[in-house]
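S.,

As promised, the pyridoxal-5'-phosphate run. Input:
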Amino acid sequence: MTDIALSSLYQQLILEHYRKPRNKGVLPGATVEVHMANPVCGDEIRLHLQLDGEERVQAATFIGQGCSISQASVSMMTVRLKGKSLDEALALAERFTEMMHGSREAARDRKLGELRALQGVSKFPVRIKCALLGFDALQEAAKRVRDQADGSDRG
Amino acid sequence: MNGPAAPAGARVSDRRSRANAFAARARRDFPALQQEVGGKPLVYLDNAASTQKPDAVIDAIAHYYRHDHANVHRGMHELARRATEAYEGARRKVARFLGAADPAEVVWTRGTTEAINLVASAWSHTFLGEGDEIVLSTQEHHSNLVPWQLAAARAGARLRYLELDGEGRLRLDRLPELLSPRTRMVALSHVSNALGTVNPVAEIAEQVHAAGALLLVDGAQGAPHLPIDVAALGCDFYAASGHKMCGPTGIGALWGRRELLERMEPYQGGGEMISVVEREYSTWAEVPHKFEAGTPNVAGAVGMGAAADYLTGIGHAALAEHERTVLEYALDRLAAVEGIRLFGPPADERCGAVSFLLDHAHAHDVATILDADGVAVRAGHHCAQLVMKHFGVPATSRASFYLYNDTEDVDRLVEGLDRVKAIFG
Ligand SMILES: Cc1ncc(COP(=O)(O)O)c(C=O)c1O
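Predicted complex:
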């Protein structure tokens, strides 16, 4: 691995989010709360989302511990989620995943905002899981919200 | 320099240059170490996870496949005879390596994990009952915990735990109160993989036997580093993995006292392990074959036998002297790194591994940055989550040393940590 790869992995923006995570804390009145862990490395987060009646994210917070990549990624994700519909949030997760798997086109997508700083992770296969931890939690949260909605439709 | 410190200092530098010469000689035997990673010579410090392989082992396996392979114990032809001899010859080598007088007391397994599962299953079947107790420690690798949890759940037995002190030693002062008339088995590691702590097995064995229980020793990290004499250790079972002692993956050994092995039920059923098969029942082959159902990993056994010979050729005294020197140097240099937290006991009570954390940088980030410098370490819980809980940390970075590592490898590690600090501040 080259120095260039390493410095693109540990960009200032990532280190900044790691040191001063945004939206860190519990969210009283959250619509949904998901715990997600990577058993291999012990990284974990708890993602809290508050949605309005139209499934739009009013607030997103997290608590957790882990490496710089997992924690910066979740921090950036929560910033990005605010105001998004659940569908937009899932599209973001998909786009981010494409970037992790090396898509240059995804890495240019402005919709990803600061999350694009994480594109260097794609060069470090063992760390991709770290970067995806928050998005895994997001996808699980969306699933729960929708399962619940389905359930109450039927009920 | 003058005064009394000078000769001691000279002795230390002598020992270091001897250790480095020893490592340089050993390194020539290991083809995988002759490569660059990240544009720098590979520094392999992940030996507690798995060691590299010397030519002697690689060649023994290749020679076996090129010339002698057939199924064992079954054929009437020349190659079957040679394969059987290679397989049983390797068993004799590993028996000698473990200090076992009787090769029939050595059962081939896939590794330490399977060896422990074998005992936890086959021994527990007959000898563990409701209300019985098994004593473990919080130092254990998951492979010396989970099999016992499964066995205890099946039998309705209870697990009790020996705790650790602040430096990762077993709290042996607590052992007497943990041992009860219901204790059937005590299962402990010889050397901790997460901390490097060496446990006083012989002393423990005495207490365990006085309480009427048995002692299983997880030797995954003991066999690679220490001279093993199961008789002197006084244990009842000893488990080891080939791949952690210069041998191949997929092979390991369980040593067990013969009268115990004989009284145990088989572990798996199949070919090789039977004597007579009727419609409703079968009778078992003699030990150790009773525990070796199916076509075994013959090439693996050959490789582990070659690894045992290789290490015996190196010599345990020379190996221990070398490892002590490198480990002392590593602990000294690491202790001087600002913002580092070291886990585990002092050098004279440990072998092989050093776990550490840096302020501000997570263990994984440390491992990634070191890897970019060609330094291979492990980050995570090291399959020892109870150790992590004991110290209240989610993960550590771990550097683990072997015969081919020298003080320059330690220097490269420390330089890498400087780089981590430059990035994470
Ligand atoms: C102390 C200890 N016990 C058991 C094991 C399991 O060994 P294996 O994976 O070779 O079965 C290991 C290796 O990770 C270990 O370090």
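The longest strand of chain A covers residues 43-51. Residues 9 and 120 of chain A are 5 Å apart (CA to CA).

- D.
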